[in-house]
Design a protein that fits this description.
This protein is an alpha/beta fold. It has helices spanning about 20-35, 60-75, 90-95, 95-105, 120-125, 130-135, 145-155, 195-205, 225-235, 250-255, 270-280, 290-295, 310-320, 320-335, 340-350, 365-370; strands at about 1-5, 10, 40-45, 80-85, 110-115, 140-145, 160, 180-185, 215, 240, 260, 280-285, 300, 365. The protein contains 16 helices and 14 strands. Helix 9 links the parallel strand 9 (about 215) and strand 10 (about 240). Helix 8 packs parallel to helix 9 and helix 8 packs across helix 13.
């Protein structure tokens, strides 16, 4: 008997927490539904009841309340065939992915762990029994990049690489003529994204052009510190626009001319894919899988981490050699075909239903409900 469209529950952060994983999770659910799959999002950050939402501002207490709401919600996995669990690292791994995988295994569901963190190497090396036994709960581990594939291989894991994807129809590609010093950062305001480096580099660049601008989109724990830094080292021109919903992101990219990224820990940033889709020349540090995306002098410029002087020099070089910058942006846009839903659809079909292909995820019911033995057998 043939059953159509196995149901998939994606366990991930909702867009109440804006970040790359939440954006990818929402995009994945929408794409699956468009393809006829019964897909749902189970949020690891359930909304607190009215009158208790202020608890989100209280460290530790918010975690306790969140778990009291999240853990019972995992009973919803009983209604799906596949639990697709997004994962970060460290304590986050124990609080959200681990309980979801355990619940799914107890409910006899297929478990797909979708690991995204650029901190995987340190996580796998130092967390021992707090990570490795739980990874074996997954029927399959999927990562977005060859970088993470190499990291997992060092610890004996075979994983599948399926890139992140971006909806090209949401972003307007245009060639920047003229190319102007309108710089953009869309990373959240956390230390590992290096937004302070961008502000210091921008201050250096302002010696060349006092009318240059830097738009910083995002929010996070470093916001007040970064605002103070901008006031201290720049003349003017830095604008913090705060949290920007995904629907408003295309306009933000369209209004900018050059994308900057200074992360020190990363994997395969969706923000860089969005910059490529919009036609922005990209200057970035080489964290994680970024060098395979931003190839030096081919699809962008690479600068050392924690080096405002080098970042500023690359900003100057981009505007002094405008034709080269536009050529790199065009080349980067031309390579986006592998980062689209049509490019990854069949790969996800194979993950959800091993051995069966097809854009509508058709699968033999008996084959799906009795998957092949797990391939994650590493004993660290």
């Amino acid at each position: 008997m043939i059953r159509t469209s196995p149901s998939v529950t994606v366990v991930a952060a909702s867009l109440d927490i804006l970040g790359g994983q939440g954006v990818q999770a929402r995009a994945l659910v929408d794409a699956l539904r468009t393809d006829g799959c019964d897909a749902a999002l189970l949020a690891i950050n359930p909304r607190f009841p009215r009158g208790f939402r202020w608890l989100r501002r209280v460290p530790y207490l918010r975690t306790a309340v969140n778990q009291l709401l999240y853990l019972p919600s995992l009973a919803r996995l009983a209604a799906c065939d596949v639990a697709h669990v997004f994962s970060a690292s460290y304590a986050s791994f124990l609080l959200a992915p681990m309980p979801a995988m355990l619940a799914a295994r107890l409910l006899n569901k297929r478990v797909v762990l979708h690991y995204h963190s650029g901190e995987a190497d340190d996580h796998l090396e130092h967390w021992g029994p707090l990570v490795h036994p739980w990874l074996r709960l997954a029927d399959e581990i999927v990562v977005p990049s060859a970088y993470l594939e190499r990291v997992f291989a060092r610890y004996g894991y075979h994983v599948r690489v399926i890139p992140n994807f971006v909806d090209l129809t949401s972003f307007r590609y245009r060639e920047r003529r003229p190319l102007t010093p309108k710089f953009l950062s869309t990373r959240n305001l956390e230390a590992y994204y290096g937004v302070d480096v961008l502000i210091k580099a921008f201050a250096r660049y302002q010696h060349n052009d006092p009318l240059a601008t830097l738009t910083i989109a995002g929010y996070g724990s470093q916001e007040s510190k970064l605002r103070s830094l901008a006031e201290l080292v720049t003349k003017r021109g830095v604008e913090f626009v705060g949290r920007v919903e995904p629907a408003a992101m295309p306009r933000l990219y369209d209004e900018a001319d050059i994308f900057l990224n200074a992360s020190v820990v990363d994997n395969q940033p969706v923000s860089i894919l969005e910059a490529f889709a919009s036609g922005l020349p990209v200057i970035s540090t080489p964290a994680g899988d970024i060098p395979s995306m931003v190839r030096e002098s081919e699809t962008g410029l690479i600068v050392p981490p924690n080096d405002p002087r080098a970042m500023a020099a690359a900003m100057v070089a981009t505007l002094e050699r405008r034709e080269r910058a536009l050529d790199m942006a065009a080349r980067a846009h031309g390579e986006l075909s592998k980062f689209t839903w049509s490019a990854v659809r069949d790969a996800w079909a194979a993950v959800y239903a091993p051995g069966v292909q097809g854009s509508r995820f058709r699968v033999l019911g008996s084959q799906f409900l009795n998957p092949e033995p797990r391939t994650v057998n590493h004993e660290p």
